[in-house]
Amino acid sequence: MSAAANQPWPYPRWVAHRGAGRLAPENTLAAFRLGAQHGYRMFECDAKLSADGVVFLMHDATLERTTSGHGVGGEHDWRALSQLDAGGWHSRAHAGEPLPTLENTARFCIANACFLNIEIKPTPGTDAVTGETVARHAARLWAGQPVPPFLTSFREDALAAARAVQPELPRGLLLDTLPRNWLDRARALDCAAVVFNHALWNADTVAQAKAAGLRCLSYTINDEWAAERVLALGTDAVITDRVDLFAPD
After folding, report:
1. N or C, which terminus of the chain has less Cβ within 10 Å?
2. What is the pLDDT of residues 228-238, one digit of tens each?
3. Which residues are designated catalytic?
């Protein structure tokens, strides 16, 4: 059993995906504000590095889908990234919304007593440096706060790097498919949780995770039947786009 096993779990059951799901431009403070207006107290976001080492929020490696920019986000310095429109693609009401830094995001969460799940989302080829930098900044920004941010990633090298520099920050391994050795991989990273595509949870996988002292989280659940299924299995948290459908408890 890992050192993280059976530690108190301070995080809410309901987590707003990328801030407010699809109701606002993802990974922006506008989304966080809207999620909070729907009663959510925990948010999931994606973090990566600019070319000059600033941690900022964006999901894709490239800029085109969710900003007015072009090319690989991590190849631009923060000065250029900070000028992009990260809201106009979503709706006219959000035109001009900027990309937030992790520092902006931390300020919002701390001021509003909200919790954060930071998915480490490296630009390809930068797994270790991204994991290390995100962890260092997260530890600095939340220093003295009662509950730290929760770090997750599909990239095991990123999680290992985060663990190496800030082992006290809780970690979760994200999985979209279920390799035979998934539990060993989570243990090797001293994870506190595993975060599965919700379809992977069943009585057996929940039992294995719980026996190892791991918390069980599910993404991305947007239907009532799916939420009812994973909660009935005894899982610990639901990540959802449907902040308008699910009232967080």
Report:
1. C
2. 999 999 999 99
3. 17, 59
